[in-house]
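Protocol step 4 of 6: structure prediction from sequence.
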Amino acid sequence: MHKRILTRAIVVVAAALTIAACDGLFGGSQIQAPKVFSLDLFEQNIRDAYAGSIGFTYAIAQNGVLVRSDGVGLGLTAAEAGGERAMHENQRMHIASISKTITTAAVLRLIEDTAGVGLDSSIEPYLPPSWTRGPGVGAISFRQLLAHKSGFFFGLVATGETDDLLAEHIEDGNILQQDDPIYDNVHHALFRVIVPYVLGEQYTDTSETEAQFHARVFAQYVQDVVFTPAGVPANRATTVLPADSNRYYPWPDDGQPGDEGTDFTLSHGAYGWYMSVVDLAAVLARLRFTEDIISNESRTIMNSERLGWWNTRSGDHGTYTMKQGGWRWTSNPVEKGMQSIAANLAAGVQAVVIVNSRRDPDATDPTLQPFDMASMMRDAFDDAFVSP
């Protein structure tokens, strides 16, 4: 008798638990299955997030494969002599400071391939022989330059990334004498003049200037170790203004012709490449999922120390390594420029966006200030997860 009663009680409890599981234990709410990434929603979120602009292009890759890309809005407005032209994802635009990510990858590859040179090696032996070394320069390492911890800061000397101005920084030396990161173009621009000497090249051909020599050797090295492995031909990753290029505008549109851009050949490294989002996404995918550009060990260092990933964000699904960029061609009378973002996200997703207009950083209305490109990308991704 007692055994039958006990068995019946177990059945009743089991049934009650089954009902509770259907309705949700402890309060009646249902147990939710994990949300899944929606590519369609992510693409729409990107289109919505960056819509406040003249035009933009985007590319999305997943697990190393391009899955979505498009151009939105205008590359040229009706104010241009040739009239309006729609934006297209294969049009080359200035990628601005995403160039630092590319330079970082090239330098890490250079260190891998060069005996006797490491991240903590001094940069001093690889500066142009004609440059005067100021105090503290011998203590500056490759790692410190990549991490913006050199102690250099253009605001203390001059503005610009030409050879002459870089030489001025080296002559003045490590002014700040500190190891705190201070983001500035000087750090990655210096690799334009360092890389040739690490390669063992010397300036001997006077048919070109020393600055042209530095720029040529550096650009060719980046092409060889970064762009070519990603399938990007030299004519699609250059510092030279593209023919019949898009223009760069203010936002809101002032109805005037935009700025065409600049030839960055003699100042690039921290910025300067003109690329399409499709080609840039190909570089990011090869960098993340293969060892064709750098080794797994170098990639781990790059990600963990945020070398080339200055705008990394924490998201709902982990840490997203990112680099954003921005450029102003003029601020008189109206701010004109662009903004860009390259992001490694969770679920094997990567995304690139380049916007061909720029808001006023001095605007008092936050809605008219420049985009926070990285935070917008993080939010677009985190909001793209849905219930199955």
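Step 5 (inspection) to follow. The chain has two domains: 2-31, 39-114+199-386.
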